[in-house]
Design brief:
This is FAD-dependent monooxygenase. GO terms for molecular function: monooxygenase activity. By secondary structure, this protein is of the alpha/beta class. It folds into three domains: about 5-75 and about 95-150 and about 255-330, FAD/NAD(P)-binding domain (3-Layer(bba) Sandwich), CATH 3.50.50; about 160-245, 2-Layer Sandwich (D-Amino Acid Oxidase, Chain A, domain 2); about 340-490, no CATH class. Helices cover about 40% and strands about 20% of the residues. It is built from 17 helices and 22 strands. The protein has helices at about 15-25, 50-60, 60-70, 100-110, 140-145, 205-210, 225-230, 235, 280-300, 305-335, 345-350, 360-365, 365-380, 390-395, 415-430, 440-460, 470-480; strands at about 5-10, 30-35, 45-50, 75, 75-80, 85-90, 95, 115-120, 130-135, 150-155, 160-165, 170-175, 180-190, 195-200, 240-245, 255, 260, 265, 405-410, 435, 460-465, 485-490. The protein is globular, with a radius of gyration of 24 Å.
Length: about 500
């Protein structure tokens, strides 16, 4: 369809990129971006763009991606546990300052003929436009006005974003145990003299450290927490301070909507959906939404048909990523329970936490890490055998006559209230061994492995996890990552993805 006028609410990555792509596709259309903040004012530090997202951006708009890459900083990834370090290659992963990313997107939008209006916050109903693209973020006023069937789920853990005035060599995941509990940082470089430090903890640690008492008003940062965390992470900060920018503790908000459009208004980016930052997905989802929405607007005869096409194309990918992100969030919220693992085995646990990276694929790209982990697991010299799954399972299949209490696990959250009851009942029974069983589908098996990890840690019994023969790779990853002691390969075949 040929559009006359399009209004975009929100000048973040989703809104700016959609505006540029739409103007390139329909030069006669008037496209205006309305951003409530001033042009040179933004919040946050760095964002990451992985190789897969970059390939999609290149196909959609090579000129913009060229400038994003030029402003970005490539880096690998490390995990540092008490000075023991495991490093993973991360080809083409880049960090870029949010300010730089927005500057690139603003320049390219204006170059295409988009008009940018800053310091204004109109409502969708007040705009004269054929279509209103609502890209006004996780706190979207457009979404909250109703019509989209929105719901928001809060995570259990707490996190805050801050920065530091130097560039780390690589991205680093680092837990630090303190007298109050464990804090963990996800930190990465995004400029020659800047790094992001995202820091997480659980509620008991947060309260024990008295970080729940800070009073933060307006745009101020939580300076008491920044001072405390500067001491916690002083080794990783190399003598630098932590930098705040509206820095305060939050719980992650997972946004879902039953509908992404209502009338002439359509949601994209965080306004429509969010996925936990540990998957690195916010900017990715926003810009990929923009690509799909503009393609649908260009291909369909009217807005309702375009919105339906956009949602049909994007919703499966978004929901898959949201499920991966949910699993990743639960893993990070329970992170302190597994810091006893050697760093290489902890890296295996991290890489397989959401079920989207098979153990053999990780071994192909990071043989040193996987080889060391396999050596630790089996008590042999580091190695990556050619028959990796068979090698792992060979001595860890539970005998059929093992005397074990059976736990039939049918639940969604291995750290939720239902799981608490399962763990408490198992602890009260005090068995020598537990056999965790359940449906054969892959999502159920992944949840079973996570529950088994809790049972190993909190009950202290030998834990067997049963799974179907076609999911032997997941069972092997569960063994190496410390989620299970033994496995049972039995029953019908499983099916389905991790999402």
């Amino acid at each position: 369809m040929q559009l006359r006028r399009v209004a975009v609410l929100g000048g973040g990555p989703a809104g700016l990129y959609a505006a540029r792509l739409l103007k390139l596709a329909q030069p006669r259309c008037e496209v205006v971006v309305h951003e409530q903040g001033e042009r040179d004012t933004t919040f946050g530090f760095g964002v990451g763009l992985a190789a897969g997202t970059q390939r999609k951006l290149e196909a959609a708009d090579a000129d913009t991606l060229r400038d994003i890459r030029a402003a970005g900083r490539p880096h690998d990834m490390t995990m540092d546990v008490g000075g023991a370090v495991a490093r993973v290659r991360n080809d083409n992963l880049i960090g870029i300052a949010r300010t730089e990313l927005l500057d690139v997107l603003q320049r390219h939008a204006e170059k295409a003929g988009v008009r940018l209006e800053h310091g204004v916050r109109p409502a969708a109903d007040d705009l004269d436009a054929d279509v209103v693209l609502a890209a006004d973020g996780v706190g979207s006023a457009t979404r909250e006005a109703g019509g989209f069937g929105a719901s928001v789920e809060l995570g259990r853990g707490l996190f805050l974003w801050c920065g530091a005035g130097f560039a780390l060599d690589d991205a680093v995941f680092a837990p630090v145990d303190t007298e109050h509990g464990t804090f963990v940082t996800h930190a990465y470089p995004y400029a020659d003299d800047r790094s992001t430090f995202l820091i997480e903890t659980d509620e008991p640690t947060w309260r024990a450290a008295c970080l729940d008492t800070a009073v933060v008003e307006g745009d101020a940062s939580d300076t008491a927490s920044l001072a405390h965390l500067r001491e916690v992470f002083r080794t990783h900060l190399r003598g630098h301070d932590l930098i705040g920018n509206r820095t305060r503790w939050q719980r992650f908000r997972t946004v879902t909507c039953r509908r992404w459009s209502a009338g002439r208004v359509v949601l994209l980016g965080d306004a429509a959906h969010t996925a936990h930052f540990s998957i690195g997905s916010g900017t990715k989802l926003a810009m990929e939404d923009a690509i799909a929405l503009v393609a649908a607007l260009d291909a369909e005869p009217d807005p309702p048909a375009a919105f339906a096409r956009y949602e049909a194309v994007r919703r499966p990918a978004v929901e898959r990523l949201q499920e991966l992100a949910r699993r990743s969030r639960l893993w990070w919220e329970s992170f302190p329970s597994r810091t006893h693992l050697p760093v290489e085995r902890l890296m295996i646990s991290y890489m397989t936490r959401a079920g989207n990276i098979p153990l053999d694929r990780f071994a192909a790209t990071s043989p040193e890490v996987v080889g060391a982990a396999l050596g630790q697991f089996a008590g042999v010299a580091p190695q990556v055998p050619p028959d990796l799954t068979d090698w792992v399972l060979r001595s860890r299949v539970a005998p059929d006559d093992l005397d074990a209490l059976v736990v039939d696990a049918v639940l969604d959250d291995p750290w939720g209230v239902e799981a608490d009851a399962v763990v408490a009942a198992a602890a009260a029974a005090a068995p020598a061994a537990l056999r965790v069983v359940g449906p054969p589908e892959r999502p159920a098996l992944l949840t079973r492995l996570d529950l088994a990890e809790r049972l190993r840690t909190e009950v202290g019994a030998t834990v067997v996890v049963e799974g179907p023969p076609d999911l032997r790779d997941d069972l092997a990853a569960g063994l190496v990552s410390g989620r299970a002691d033994l496995v049972g390969v039995t029953g019908s075949t499983g099916s389905g993805e991790a999402s």
